[in-house]
Design goal:
By secondary structure, the protein is of the alpha/beta class. It has seven helices and seven strands; from the N terminus they run αααββαββαβαβαβ. The radius of gyration is 18 Å and the shape is globular. The relative contact order is 0.15.
Length: about 230
């Protein structure tokens, strides 16, 4: 192997390590995203709630889909679930198109090809240059009038628990996320600073029937996650 080939290999390895850092680290699914019956039930209610922003005739792309909790439950004409981890292929329902790939590179999709781009608990796992690329690519594939929907932890609400997930590398509050989206060419349609509790793990499995009430209520005890809906700016 020549010196140049060695350097190229090292650069490639470094790039792959950076791309797969965070949510894609070995064992992450087992420690932070193990399949959870309670989470499944919560997402049934969330999918119904999200229907107010997602037309049944929409083409939807989920980034960082993981177990496809969102993709498998949302009603839309076409649903594509994308994740760097191949778990997405076995998790996707028959009607969902599974794509394995880096969510910061959407080159496989044409411009203006989706009405909705959705991501849950993804952007906080990315370094700035990665999240810049993700937002720019999402804006490219969104059709005019399309929506970017991001659901993720709000540091302002839970600073003491934000880094309980060891793969978090970026800090966002409702204000900083709104400003960041504007800086990347989006207009914020809605920001729900208090949307859901920080975790959906099974400790509250007997209370999932309360999720619709929680989503409607102006009072959000234990809120730790926010939801932002944004549009590509003209």
């Amino acid at each position: 192997m020549t010196a140049q080939e060695t350097r190229d290999q090292l650069v490639t390895s470094a790039d792959e390590s950076q791309t797969q850092a965070g949510v894609y680290e070995k064992g992450y699914f087992e420690t932070r995203l193990a399949q959870d019956a309670n989470r499944e039930k919560v997402w049934v209610h969330l999918a119904k709630h999200f229907a107010r922003w997602i037309d049944p005739d929409a083409d939807v792309l989920e980034l960082g889909a993981g177990w496809c909790d969102f993709s498998n439950k949302i009603a839309a004409r076409r649903v594509v679930a994308m994740d760097l981890d191949a778990t997405v292929q076995k998790a996707a329902a028959p009607h969902v198109q599974a794509e394995v790939g880096d969510c910061t590179d959407l080159s496989r999709f044409e411009d203006d090809s989706f009405d909705i781009v959705f991501a849950s608990n993804l952007v906080e796992h990315l370094h700035r240059e990665q999240s810049d690329r993700l937002l720019d690519e999402a804006r490219r594939v969104l059709r005019p009038g399309g929506r970017l929907m991001l659901m993720q932890p709000n540091f302002r609400l839970n600073p003491g628990r934000y880094f309980d997930d060891y793969t978090h590398v970026a800090i966002f509050t409702d204000q900083s996320l709104s400003d960041y989206l504007v800086s990347r060419g989006y207009a914020v349609e809605e920001m729900h600073a208090k949307f859901m509790p920080l975790t959906m793990k099974s400790s509250g499995s007997g209370l999932t029937f309360l999720v619709p009430w929680y989503l409607r209520s102006p009072i959000k005890p234990l809120a730790g996650q926010m939801l932002v809906v944004a549009n590509p700016a003209d």
